[in-house]
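Example (one chain per record):
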Amino acid sequence: MTERSPALQILAVYGTRPEAIKMAPVVAALQRRPETFAVRACATGQHREMLDQAQDLLGLRPDLDLRLMRHDQTLNGLTAAAVAAMDEVLAAESPDWLLVQGDTTTAMAASLAAFHRRVRVGHVEAGLRTGDLGRPFPEEANRRVIDLLATCLFAPTGRARQALLAEGHAAERIHVVGNTVIDALRAMSAGLGGPPPARPEVLITVHRRESFGAPLREVFAALRELAESFPEVDWVYPVHRNPNVQGPAHEILGGLPNLHLHDPFDYRELVRRLMRCRFVLTDSGGLQEEAPAFGKPVLVLRETTERPEGVEVGVARLVGTCRERIVAEASRLLTSEAAWQAMARAVNPYGDGCAGERIAAILGGEPWTPFAPTLP
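Predicted structure:
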């Protein structure tokens, strides 16, 4: 009788809400193969309240919670704490694989700790690049470090694969699987229908570190001008809890009857608002990937994006942080049906809802088919 091989020990690490959302489909796919994988989840707590909300909604239960969040924590302080804490976890758990997602300080620090322990790293969402280490900051540097250290590079798109090949990564380490956020989005949006809003809505998210200060104030000035110019439109803005965002947001945007400043939405409410909005104004990477799934045009409030596929197929447009350009592009989508229709195509170059299953198949040595988007 042939003895069965022991299950691969997988440690999945995440620290922020976006990481949890994008890692949950991978964990679920691995857990559906208990004969192949023994999965443990570790939360660093890089973001606390928003992370807890996401875990509850996604049914993601961490086996380990490092609770690293501190008030006014610096990037270096967080990095040092995360590397030290992850070193202890890796010593105790001895996993065969460490899985990280994206480009956060949690993902970079965990990957470095695993490299020092000679634990193989799998990078979910590998190969995203802007080519500018300062935009986004510190994420562009984080993702390059992770890809350098990783054994398995789970690229979401063919463009991400090409970026990795151009940097000299071996082709056999790169696997085009789609983005797991589309897996999560499909699961969360099921049954979230309902009547359209009584008035047109525009969904706004702005929070990137590199925009703090003058660029952020320029964006908020544009939003105020738009809200005053289009009083028949509801401008919906769940404001990030960072005081660098909260302060100027309430100072510049407060008191407008049709610009609604909310506490951060949980993931279900964010998806519901995304499904019903007219279009999206955002500097978020995740929303650039999610909005096209519902045919929602995206105006990207950044100078560069590591997700250019949406721009290339016409469902997203880079508008930067210049007040005049933001106002002009948003106004065009509100006043020209043809302009809106040209971008409002349910075309998603980022995923098909099967990325988690592909990653599990690759780690388990099963047959799989690379992701290839269906585009016009």
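Caption: The two ends are 53 Å apart (CA to CA).
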